Amino acid sequence: MLAVLADAVTTFRRTASSEHPAERRHFVETARWFASNDTAGTFSFATIRDELGLDADHIRDSLKTWRRRRRAEDAERRPWFASAS
Question: Are 70 and 18 in contact (CB under 8 A)?
Answer without folding.
Answer: no
